Amino acid sequence: MGAHISIPMYQRAVPQRYRLVGQRCLKCGKVNFPPKAVCKYCNAGFEFEEVTLSGRGTVYSYTIIAGGGAPPEFAEQAHCQGSYPVVVVELEEGPRVIAQLVDPPPAGITIGMPVRAVFRKIYEEEGVIRYGFKFRPA
Q: Which residue numbers delimit the ChsH2 C-terminal OB-fold domain (predicted)?
């Protein structure tokens, strides 16, 4: 079994997973995503304002996950679909996030490629479908 995320823990992360809600540090002005107790940039800010991220960004890096390298929660997907791409996206607001890429272009993924967040099923655990964001070419 993979990394277990309890239903209460998952529900606490719904704003980030469903609406891409981050926080802007009132000390340094940088955007933290996912939200933190202390700003990960200045390590001094602990007051924040909520900010909904646009979901637009560019591919900073990527890899292809093959069936044997898939985390257990994605083993079924890897079995049904084979390998799948995972990207590190630099959002236009600054944070970098990791997510699957859906509908990759036939010509291949490129660094700097514009992408946009889309709301999708991530996996199912304990009979609950876990939704969240993935990215697709913009």
A: 50-120
